[in-house]
Amino acid sequence: MDDRISNDEADPVPEFYIPATTSLAELEPRTLKHGDSFAVFDHYGDVLRSDRSPQGLFHRDTRYLSRLEVLIDGKRPLLLSSTVDDENVLMSVDLTNPDRFDGRQIDLSRDSIHLLRSKFLWMGHSYERFAFRNFDTKAHEMTVEIRFAADFADLFEARGQRRAKRGRSHQPVVGAGRVVLAYDGLDNETRVTTVRFDPEPEFLTGTAARFRIALAPGQRNVVLMAVTCAAQPAHAFSGERYFFRLRQARRAVRVAKRRTASVTTANALLNEALERAQADLAMLMTDTDEGPYPYAGIPWFSTMFGRDAIITAHMMLWADPTVARGVLMALAARQATAEDPLRDAEPGKILHETRGGEMANLREVPFGLYYGGVDSTPLFVMLAGAYFERTLDLPTIRALWPHIEAAVTWIDAYGDRDGDGFVEYGRRTEEGLANQGWKDSHDSIFHADSTLAQAPIALCEVQGYVYAAKRAAARLARAMDMGPRADALDDQAAELAFAFNQAFWCDDIGTYALALDGQKRPCRVRSSNAGHTLFSGIADPHKAAQVVATLMSGDSFSGWGIRTIPQGESRYNPMSYHNGSIWPHDNGLIALGLARYGFKEPVLRLFGGLFDASLYMELRRLPELFCGFSRRPGKGPTLYPVACAPQAWASATLFALLQASLGIAFDPAGGEIRFDNPRLPLFLDAVQLSGVSLGPACADVSFCRHGAQVAVSVLKRTGNLRIITAI
């Protein structure tokens, strides 16, 4: 999502680069999120590394807690286990006391005292419960110290950027059972962390709370802690309040999950991966004024991204169309209305990213409301068309139509910079992103000889998105009785498809060029980008088979998935961010494209590879990306050091793979749910979809594989609905 540096020493360090001084895979962080807050802890539930680290409690792109450490008699407890529950609500850490010497002998043996730390986030608060229990036959006393601090670092500072000047930190204000930490930002905003304890500590300073815990044999004792990203918490703090808020948090997740069709399979491990994916999506979903919106990923991208949310919503559309509506309405509300070069904004353009921290407010980074993405705008129109095909929700489309027209106008007036019929990008200022497609590393668009392409750059997949956007806008115009407008849009789409297949096709490499550079020279590089032309439908059917063969060749398909750039290309590096790695969402979109053109066997291979990869991932969670090394017997995939997990579009990938395999489609006008040539991979004998909705009607449908054939059975049906299977 941001520029990453390559290993080429001649390349300058890109702005907004995320330094990889420590691997997230090495840290194995524990992650929680609710709304505009997220937290990253170590296995102990502590925050001990804050410099260039994602650890801490963040709210609206500012770190409100940069240190949290629990000590028993001055020593760190012994770790027993650490996990986040299946709903991603509660983090639980089991700890025990270390051996304690009185100078001559052990007076408290290890494993005598059990400490259970339980924590969750809710409405800008981090709630934590420390439950002590004495399992020894003797009474014990111990000193428990909780250390804390707040550096109020901007997220971009935590990522590694240095600032010439910062605001002013206040001296801590210590009261009865609470400490208030505050910071006056250079943006004239005061940010406040309030730390509260129940019961009141025996000793409390601006950096630590100390408790004397006395436990008879079998006795329990509890300490509660709340960290609030505000000056005045709205309520008192107690054990009752802790459990009340925990119930609220669990209830909210379950309500969100009930909107989504559920999937159960005959493969227990796939069920675990699907349950985690659904829980991750529920956690990343953030309620906006316009509806639910999936934030992109944790830790670095826990905010609104246009491209990520649109693609996530598209992959989830069959299971939960309310996400698409929320995304469309939220992006429409933030659509650019004027030119602003620093933000790469132009009238009609759809948001790339928004940030709420001090550096964004001061424009030290351009991402307060940033529009430097070339693909969000056509993808927005594509999603609007797909949402209407899924729901026939004409009132929403009528409300969106001015924004759809503005987006189409941007495509024609601003997107096509040189009037050649293709949409190009080039940043308006040096502060913006150099590359503005989904592969936005500074070195991700290049020629066969490794020379970087110069702007304005026309990406192959973006032309496909524009083609699909024009087709979608035509269908929507026709639904609103605007026949002439629909015909004109269809004509434009047809002209673009013809020109694209002429200009981008490279017979010598068996696929479409990665891009055209500023001089209209094709970047004759094989890439996963070409797979998106199948997703959009712009690929000539006669060329599609060659594209598929190239994508599924040994150079491109690693055994785990399709690489962003295949082996043999000049900048191929399986450890790079965009030049040889494997992105689950990229493979998910390609799978939908393969199914569109009738290539089901490659879909099943992709499904199998990514499922197998998930078996090696912590919590069965597909990350943002992983390295593109070839699959080897007995060895799992190689992790990427700073990949976000969870990541919304990675979590949605399994739902896209299911849709591509089962051929899930909808005809709301005819009251039909269709399954076109349903297939299942060899690792999967049976699947059940429950609560697949079409308006007020819904159905439960099962699929059972017999060899290469799949039998479809309707288990339950409510409302006026037909289930159609097409072979």
From TrEMBL:
Residues 32-221 form the Putative glycogen debranching enzyme N-terminal domain. This is Glycogen debranching N-terminal domain-containing protein. Coiled coil: none annotated. Transmembrane segments: none annotated. It holds the Pfam family MGH1-like_GH. It comes from Azospirillum himalayense. InterPro entries: 6-hairpin_glycosidase_sf, 6hp_glycosidase-like_sf, GDE_N_bis, MGH1-like_GH. Residues 312-619 form the Mannosylglycerate hydrolase MGH1-like glycoside hydrolase domain.
